[in-house]
Amino acid sequence: MALQPAAGARDLNPRQVDANRQLSEKLAGVFRMWGYDEVSPPRVERLDTLMAGGAIASSDIVRLVADEPLGLRPEMTASIARAACTRLAARPRPLRLWASGTVFQSRAADEGGHCIEENLQTGVELFGVEPIEAEMELLSLLMASVQTLGLDHAHRPRLLVGHTGLMDLLLSLVPDNMREAVRTALIQFDRLALIGLDLSDDLRATLLNLLGCRGTPQQVLSELRGTFGKTGLFEDLERLCRQLDSFATEQGIAIQLDPTFQPHFELYTGLVFQLVCDGSAAPVVIARGGRYDDLVRRCGAPAQLAFGAGFSFAIDPIRELLSGEGTVSPLPTVLVAFSPSSRLEDGLARQRHWHQQGRSAVLELHPCNVRSEAESTARSQNLQLDWLDN
Hints:
Blueprint lengths: L13 H20 L3 E2 L5 E3 H4 L11 E3 L5 E3 L4 H9 L9 E14 L5 E14 L5 H15 L10 E6 H8 L7 H9 L3 H6 L4 H11 L5 H12 L3 H20 L2 E4 L13 E8 L4 E9 L1 H6 L9 E7 H8 L11 E5 L5 H13 L4 E3 L7 H10 L3 E5 L2
Parallel strand pairs: 1-5, 7-8, 12-13, 12-14
Antiparallel strand pairs: 2-4, 3-4, 5-6, 6-11, 7-9, 9-10, 10-11
Helix pairs in contact: 1-4, 1-12, 4-10, 9-10
């Protein structure tokens, strides 16, 4: 019998479980306040749903042995979009949903082979709202949610914002046969690859300049207007970032606009974003999201309603980042112990009393000969002793 969990899976101790629960409940309280209803998508789905029409690579999905192609969800958006367009299709739009649960990804292990990466997620999805109104609500909700987590300036939170439309603009300068290679170099921030491509000197210089075009939204949009002129996309992004500015300033969140930013999953067709903090050893992504109209369309939504956007928080990295900060320390559990002159029935009655007060209490089922014996047991388990000696 194997005594270690599968590679990538984790055993959480009670403190970690409690911290995850508190973080999830804090975020759930904000989602409910904003009018989002909870749903529970299945952990197991058909592969064609999980792959989201090719947006998610099959290598990222943990496959199951079954009579039909099934896998464990690598994220929850595709499953929720499917439900929104089928079982929940008759509900009026905007349709606001949130969900919390475990997601599973298959990745290459350091020592070779593959392992399963298991993470707890919670997030929201908004269906039936066109750009840019949905993005304004979602990013305002993101800011309100972050406020409950207790991040401080030492974490250096920063919101990295991109847009698939910005990438399309950059690639519009490039010949068709070179676009995929240029796109890869831009996404990977690979200056050497860009220099090595068979491009004209002027185009190469322009792309290298755009590769470094990242920073405050005002600065980046000004530079992009100098290259591409005025577009409605620039106006929308400026409006969105202006809406977020006061929220971000209050919480010490820096907003960075990056035209070359694209997430790992090619799920999004519009705005994309990540919330990044400084961890003890490296930057940590604690939230990510964007717009995914194409996915909603593939799920069968009519054209006039084929709009979707959302984001999710990664609970485990947030817990590790905070290291217990911002969580409420519960009152210690009570140990009800009794002497030989008392009875088990007396102990059960006393335990019920603590439960009625809302306190956690456990009962020592056998009498202790002396109080010191009960005190030793309580100390060893970090419990508060309630001693009965009738």
